[in-house]
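Q: Here's a chain of 604 amino acids. Please give me its 3D structure as tokens.
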Amino acid sequence: MSSLHPVVESVTAQVRERSRESRQRYLQCMQRTRDQDPPRRILSCGNLAHGYAACGESDKETIRLMQSAHIGIVNSYNDVISAHAPMVAYPDLIKEVAREMGSSAQVAGGVPAMCDGVTQGRTGMELSLFSRDVIAMATAVSLSHNMFDAVMCLGTCDKIVPGLMIGALQFGHLPVGFMPAGPMPSGIPNKEKANVRQRYAEGKATKEELLEAESSSYHAPGTCTFYGTANSNQVMMEMMGVQLPGCSFINPDHPLRPAMIRETTLRLIAAADTSSERHIPLLRMVTEESIVNALVGLLATGGSTNHTLHLVAMAKAAGIDLRWDDFDNLSRVVPLIARVYPNGDEDVNAFQRAGGMAYLMHELRNAGLVNENVVTLMGEGLETHEYEPSLDEQGRLEWREHIEESRWTEVLRPVAEPFDKEGGLRLVRGNIGEGIIKISAVKPKSRKTTASCIIFHEQSELKEAFEAGQLNRDFVAVVRFQGPKANGMPELHHLTPYLGVLQDRGYNVALLTDGRMSGASGKVPAAIHVTPEAVDGGPIARLRDGDVITIDADAGVVSVDVPEQELLAREPVRHQRANDTLGRGLFEAFRTHVSDANRGAGVF
């Protein structure tokens, strides 16, 4: 194992130094919580009776004796989201394991979980980002009964895992484990699905053909198999140590999945013993070092741009000040060693077969790209995270095989022979503001675009212009008033097929927006999350049709070729839109109080 890379060491030190006061406040709050409100111990007889009234007599006796761990389960189950449908059965298994150990468990509460795939390009997507903070609050409400010595968070997808983590960090004095459902089996190749989408956008495929392709791709319980935000969540949770090694990409019906649930439950019970050396509260796992490790894992795999929001917000919840500069600085030294769609042709099941998280951790540790002074559910350090999980002859979970070589170098490569020398997330700045661009799937020749812009205020306007044949030229599409304060910052992935068709026709096209693009950001260069956003009168609101814009990912530049005085003299465009249908009216307070994208786009 190599010594820590100097840039990783420097970024970690910078994060630690700038977080000194806020982290200390957080730790003091957690200690005060532990001292003033120890779980169950201060509840009155009436409180306790209400809390276990629905339990069986055996569980009641276990809970009232307070001699063993009581686990609170926060569940995001519903059967609309394929990745969350399997979680219907998880609480019963957790309770069964707890009883075997003389402990107990209850479902503390449920949190809402929406699917960006269902709402993509639709009005409902405007609630998507805000659902993260609703989930955080729902997690806090679930745990507010103060009945629990440890917490099991059941969740997989985009905003759900970050929301669970933000909420759980309010209870950082307790041990917390995370459990996903894993990916569905592979369907039709993602590249084939993307081709059908583009042909449909061009009018060359029917709606029936498109629906058949989509249904053949998203076809079973489990996460979508492309490497978007949901699967990026899993990489980060393992890198932070709140999920057991190898837990992330086991299919829902694999025998290892219930074994992982069992083992996580056992480790939470052990970690809940405050008199033991194995006591591991969440605040010991989520630290400056582990947050940097999560970011390194994200970059090394070409993960979702959404985590330039979510990881910042999760870090903030732990009193840690993570910034876009940290993403940029680390991205330049962390090599891209995974190619998973949309950054490659294969899916996350192929990533798992190639060696998965065990091989990823092996390479990152050997290259000195991760902090070793961390604590995980497995204990101190990261060595056990280089081993693949398996079942012994008695069906018990063990970590036996040390993964030192990739089984599929088209999907996973050693650090010494990367797909790219850097991680592919870049910070871009200029007279338009600052934003993020993901280049891991963008060809080098497309990483710099200079062209006149066409302004759109709604996604539908770009679609209409495409269908009218008005976009057959080089241009930068400016889609503004899509930031968190304007409309909740919906993903704009619905634009991908149209821009992809134009790129395939040979046109030099790019996207500039104060909105999100999604975890599936692909081959079209997109400067996203632009801050200040248009509704705040940011420079993006001063752009006019025909302005020449440069997006240069390599140089870290996003700018408009307009003299500074002229740009400042322009009156920012105002755009009024309805935000009150399909539940959006309830979120006016969120839009009013949400922070800028570069601070996590949160309301806390």
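Q: Can you summarize the key feature?
A: Residues 7-110+137-181+228-387+396-402 form one domain.
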